[in-house]
Structure formats: structure tokens, C-alpha cells
Amino acid sequence: MKRRFLVVFGACCIAAIAIAGWVGARGTDAGAAPIRLAVLPFEAGQSDNVALARGLSLEFAERISYAPGLVVRPPALANRQSALDLELLDADLILDAEVHEADDEIRVHVWLHSGAAGYNSDVSVAVPAGDVVDLPQLLAREVVAALGLELAAARAELMARSTAGHVEAFRDYLIILGTTGGRGAPDPVAGLADVIERDPAFAPAYAALADQHLRRGRAHRELRTAEYDRAEQALRAALDLDPELPSALAAMATLMARTARQAEATALARRAIEVHPYRPELYSRLGYVLRYAGLVDESVAAYRRGLELDGRPAALVSGEGQIAKGLVYLGDYYGALALQEGLHDHLARIGRTADEKMLFYEGVMQYYAGSTERALQLFDAAWDLDPTSLWSAFGRAYGYGIAGDTTRLVALARELETRDVADGERHYRLVHFHALAGRHEDAARRLRVALDGGFVNYAYMSTDPLTAAVRDTPAFAAALSDAKARYEAFPRPGR
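Above: the chain sequence. Below: its structure as C-alpha cells.
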């Protein structure tokens, strides 16, 4: 029997007026602050459609993010433990939903509420029976209308562009999106490949497949090159079908950055922001690639814009931590430390404490600021917290450098070269270790590895106090000259 889909937004038109009035009070002109909407993972009315409900919430969040003046906290961020805490979600409104599936219909009951304004309401709309492929877009349109926003024709066309063309394939796609990993879970790569075989014009399936290949590549060094190649192939297919698909643009920017193509990564991130200016994760991606390229002021500005759109404590921990790294590259060590110290307050708001990575970075900042004793304390604390972590090993190596223990420093640097350091910025740590040990040729060799990994921040490298002892040696000077050439070749606005 063909399924029938019915979307129900409650039963009260007065609630629609209330929500629209609340939005109107905020203003909808170009200068008004965007509405911040947290989409919770949809609840399942029956135990056998949990994955479908979760997948539907993810796809709905993607579609509604096309609406102008709306910042969406997707279900992966808006978990139910923080469902009623608008401050933790940095949200104005929360959208909740429950999915009920019967033999002949799926009923999705959606309601919007705001703890601050006291609204707890649902809006009455009936949608004619149709295919599941229309459901996320129909939901998005009705919520946009309930919020009193206007969806211009161009944005509506973007929202509709990636609608699936095969009902059962799309249903399987939603289930794959909503299925958490674990023992016995189906292989998402095989499942997404099957979706694509049945619906080869559905761009989001290619983007989801690429995401799985990127995950595999990050997790398994021996598979990285092949998995990244597969990811790029899938992303190019997605962007051929939908050049403005945000998930594909963001993933391709990530891939370009990870494969030392920073100019392409920057162009993709900027293009994505131009089309989707209210997606904070795109500014984070832009900030990342600009820092790699040595455009640190622009990187910091991008991260700050992202935090204007996403002020959740967890986002502040990540974003301000990234900004602090940039301040180190600019030589503002005390500014970096001030930001880093504030991260502890953000963590406390969400019941967390600093992990070994955060302790390591704070130690590096103290080291640059000349507080070597405090740096050693932080490096030791990171090691005590998790001695198996790469960050803890980095901290221990800096500790050996501070202590002048060249023998153990070189031995640990050699051991780290056999580990999965993963990217160019991290490889630059090994430049430090060899430079602190006075091994200028090894420092030059690791600098070239960092450059090949896309980290070409010559403005920082050329003045880095931790490489001062080897900077004028022939091998290192030659590698630094290569860094300068790559840095200056990076395209800049207006040039």
C-alpha cells in the first residue's frame, strides 16, 4: 500500500498569530538580528521508526536553513538534554516534533516554544497526501510561514533543488541519516551507494556519501588517500547536480584544506557563505583555511562572525579556542591567554572540564608568553589526564625542550614522526621540536612536510621565536623561502 503523509501543526491559529507577532517585534528587515531556531531530534511515536524520525529532522533542518534571517541549530547540536535551556542552545525558539507512522500515513506533529517569551504553541496546517520526498520541504515552508518570514522565489528554488526523485530510495536515505553507528549497524557507505544507484540525480546522497569517506580517511591513515579521492569524486558529483548545496560546499572546502589546496578551500567557503550567510559552520571553515594560509586577521574575523551566529557555550569553547591560536600567530600571547582562560567558564556552563588538548594549547601560550614554569605544569597535567593522546605527547616534547633534555626530545620527535599527525599545522610542532634540539636539517625537513600539508603561514613562521636558533641555517632558510613563495601566491581580495 502506498503511504500517505500528513503534516499536522497542532490546532490553534491564535498560536500562529502569537509567534508571528513575536517575530514582528524583532523586525524582519535586513538589519534585524536573525531568528535562532533550535531543531530537536524528532521523536518517534513507534519504536520501529526511530531512525526515520531522526533522519527526517536532519533533512528538515537542512531545508529550513535556506530561509533568510534564520539561524538553525541542527538536531546534532540541539540535543534533548538541553531542550528547555535556551541559553545553552543560544536559541530564541525551539522546534520539537513527533513522528507517528501507520499503514497509510505518517503524522508529524510539530510545535514551537520559547521559554523566554512563554510561547508553547503549534500552528494548524494540513498538507495534501504526497510522497515522502516532499515532506522535509513542506515542513520547512510551513514553519517559515508560521514564523512570519518570507521565502523569496530564489530561496524557495534553492530549497527545492535537491528534492529526491525516488520515494523508497529517499526513505532509505533518511533512515541512514538517522541511524547511529555501533555493532551490527548497517554500512552507511554501501547503503548510500545503493540510494545513489536508484536515484542518481539526488545531490544530498552524494554529499552524505562523501562525508562517510572523509570520516574513514580521518580515522585510518592507511586508507586516507583512497578515501579522500572517493570523497572528492562524490562531492564533485553533488556540486554538478546542485552547485549551491551547503553540505557539499562545506565538505569540499574541508577536503581541499586537508589536501593542501587552501586557495580552492577558501574560494569554496566564501562561495558557500555568499549563498548561505547564516550558517555559522561555514565561517569556522573559512577561518580555518585562512589561518593555514597566513591570513590570520581575516581568519579571526571569520571565526568571530561565526560566533555571532552561534553563541552556544560549546561553540564558544571551539571558536574562541581557534581565535586564541590565531592570536598566538599574531604575537598577542596575553590576548590568547585571556581568551583561553575564558574557555574554562564556558566549559563549566555545560558541565565539562578542560581536556588534554585544551591544557596543551594553554601550555603553549604560556610558553610563548615566557611563563615556562606554568607551561610545564599544564603540559604535565595534560599527560596525567591522557598519556596516550597526541596532544599530551606534544606537550611532553615541549617540556623536554624547556628542560634542555635534547636526547629525550629528539627520541620523542622521532617517535611522533611515525604517528598519524594528520595535518600541516600539527606537523609544524615537529619543526619546533627539532629546532629546540638544534637539528636544523631535520627542522627544515619537517617544515617542508608542514608546507605540503597546506600550512603556509609565512608571516608567523618567519618571526616564530621557537625556531630562531635554526632560522638562518641554509637548509631552514631555503625551506622558509619556499614558505614565503607559497604564502605570497595565495590569492587575496583585491589582488
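The beta strands are 4-8, 35-39, 43-44, 70-73, 93-101, 105-114, 119-121.
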